[in-house]
């Protein structure tokens, strides 16, 4: 089994770690296939309630390993096929009911932006940098960047990154909405773990379904989304976890009302 992406599952938490630090975690053919396979495994495991996406080494992900790809493939059809493989992994994670937090400790470039944005919540180091670099080497966006990037920061800012040789720092990424939080470099891993623990300690399935509704709803008719919402909340009401939490909420509300009455 490839060690280009590490997977560890314990107590409902799946940790997915990019592990080609010498190549800035850029994806080659083997890593791309591993990414797809890990996505399938994690999202189909009913025991997994939350996912942490992180990376080994100084960079989070430099996108596709264009040097390795240029020497390993013989034509454009093979490049397109490799992209399809990685895209399947991204789509599998994005459309799943598993909430994902990314711990971004370093630089993110090219397709790494799309891989990062497969996560639903992004914690970045104050040292992290974000850059496109596609056009600089004569290539076009892939790995979901043309969809996920404008969805996160808006079309104008996405074009600013894609059409100029612009590198933004963590503070700008936070201001633009590219990341959710910026913390010190030594706190990225612990903060991501806190977020995942919050999901696992709470109504885990409800967080996952909320993520799925938002992610998939962006590309469907409104009427379809409403039907999905109705079915999903109906199913949620039937679970033991929801019944217990609703009962606790009702009891707390009655207690608050009684306190106000007696004050």
From TrEMBL:
InterPro entries recorded: ClpP/crotonase-like_dom_sf, Enoyl-CoA_hyd/isom_CS, Enoyl-CoA_hydra/iso, Enoyl-CoA_Hydratase/Isomerase
UniProt-listed PANTHER family: ENOYL-COA HYDRATASE, POLYKETIDE BIOSYNTHESIS ENOYL-COA HYDRATASE PKSH-RELATED
Protein's name in the database: Enoyl-CoA hydratase/isomerase family protein
Protein family membership: Belongs to the enoyl-CoA hydratase/isomerase family.
Species this chain originates from: Microbacterium fluvii
One Pfam match: ECH_1
């Amino acid at each position: 089994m490839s060690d280009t992406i590490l997977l560890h599952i314990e107590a409902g938490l799946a940790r997915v770690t990019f592990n080609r630090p010498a190549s800035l975690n850029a994806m080659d053919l083997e890593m791309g296939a591993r990414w797809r396979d890990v996505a399938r495994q994690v999202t189909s495991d009913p025991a997994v309630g939350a996912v942490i996406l992180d990376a080994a080494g100084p960079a989070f992900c430099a996108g596709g390993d264009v040097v390795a790809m240029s020497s390993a493939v013989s034509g454009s059809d093979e490049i397109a096929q490799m992209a399809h493989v990685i895209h399947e992994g991204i789509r599998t994670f994005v459309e799943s009911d598993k909430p994902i937090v990314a711990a971004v400790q370093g630089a993110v470039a090219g397709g790494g932006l799309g891989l990062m944005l497969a996560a639903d919540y992004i914690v970045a180091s104050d040292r992290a940098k974000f850059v496109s670099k596609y056009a600089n080497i004569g290539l076009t966006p892939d790995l979901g960047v043309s969809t996920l990037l404008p969805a996160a920061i808006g079309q104008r800012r996405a074009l600013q990154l894609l059409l100029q040789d612009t590198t933004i720092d963590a503070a700008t990424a936070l201001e633009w909405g590219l990341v959710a939080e910026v913390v010190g470099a030594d706190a990225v891993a612990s903060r991501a773990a806190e977020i995942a623990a919050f999901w696992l300690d709470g109504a885990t399935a409800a967080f996952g379904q909320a993520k799925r509704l938002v992610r998939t709803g962006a590309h469907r008719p409104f009427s379809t989304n409403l039907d999905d919402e109705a079915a999903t909340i109906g199913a949620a009401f039937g679970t033991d976890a929801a019944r217990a939490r609703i009962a606790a909420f009702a009891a707390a509300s009655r207690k608050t009302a009684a306190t106000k009455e007696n004050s």
